[in-house]
Amino acid sequence: MSFTVLATPRSFSKNDDAPIRLLEEQGCTVIRLPMNGGDLQAQLLEQLPQADAVIAGLEPYTRSMLETAKNLKIISRYGVGYDKVDLEAAHAMGIKVSITPGANSDSVADLAMTLMLAAARNVCPMDAAIRAGGHDKPITGVEMWNKTLGVVGTGRIGKGVIQRASGFQMKVLANDAYPDPAFVEAHNGKYVDLDTLFRESDFITLHAPLTEETRNMVDARRLAEMKPRAVLVNTARGGIVDEDALYEALRGKVISGAIIDAYSQEPLTASPLFSLDNVILSPHAGAFTTDALNAMSRMSVDQLFQYVDGATPDNLVTAE
């Protein structure tokens, strides 16, 4: 095989070294980025020119960056999002792009439900209050039982959230460009337009890809449509939510709260959101379970092997 494989995610094969061993057994040279951090852009520019394949994380692959990768044949995304890859440039250069759908779906769905419950019952503020000596000051929350859940995007993750919500007997309002009415109706739900979903939902959870159509989909107008006690959850992609508009909506109590796991700029090192106590922030952690990381590691390697064997990878991203 004699491929040079650049694996950029620091969590790749972290809990199980079988994917790396398999690559090496097939004659691949595996390059890892330094585990102690550093300038990712500089590291990529140094290593990309010698790579035949990349097992890629969330770092961007722009046209100018891809032009330095003269040997690159395939980018095997360690995850499902590919908005950070310039697909037009990649396809023009003959570089294949694949993803690992389903590998982290349950983990992200679990986190979305966990964070909704945390917001509903004010888990983070109560923890902070106790640490500050306020054990006698419980904070009144709301129940999720029988509430209305708005789900934007009913792919694997969105469906996983809907299945979990059925345990709370939640009414589901769904929206997707490619609906699955039979599934949603079987889980106490129906498809509606976005305006209806934002107006009538008590909790809204986003599971759509970032595209030109969904960029800043949740803007000031959409936020103003929401119920004052509603909570917005984004475990999808940061660019779907206009973060400036979200800050103003939270600061002005237009909505009760928000839970954000994905940001327009990552890593998030500074934000006006840091000053608010009605938002829960997490570091794009949806896929960070042992189960999901192992599955993504194995699947990203499988996609690479399929390409090397002359087959079309199962989860190839086609030209748009």
What would you note in describing this structure?
This protein has 320 residues and is an alpha/beta fold. It has twelve helices and twelve strands. It has helices spanning 18-25, 40-47, 63-66, 87-92, 105-120, 123-131, 156-165, 181-186, 194-200, 220-225, 243-251, 290-308; strands at 4-7, 29-32, 53-56, 74-77, 96-98, 148-152, 171-175, 189-191, 203-206, 231-234, 257-260, 279-281. The strands form two sheets. Strands 8-7-6-9-10-11-12 form a seven-stranded parallel sheet, with helices on both faces. Helix 1 (18-25) links the parallel strand 1 (4-7) and strand 2. Helix 5 (105-120) packs across helix 7. The protein is globular and about 60 Å long.
- Work out the radius of gyration: 21 Å
Low-confidence stretches: none
Q: If strands are numbered along the chain, what order do they take across the biggest sheet?
A: 8-7-6-9-10-11-12
- Our measurement of the CA-to-CA distance between the termini, rounded to an integer number of angstroms, reads 30 Å
Count of individual helical segments: 12
- How much beta, percentage-wise? 5-15%
Largest sheet: 7 strands, parallel
Query: How many β-strands, per DSSP?
Result: 12
Helix content: 25-40%
Estimated structural class: alpha/beta
SSE ordering: EHEHEHEHEHHEHEHEHEHEHEEH
- The pLDDT mean sits at 94
Shape field: globular
**Oligomer class:** single chain
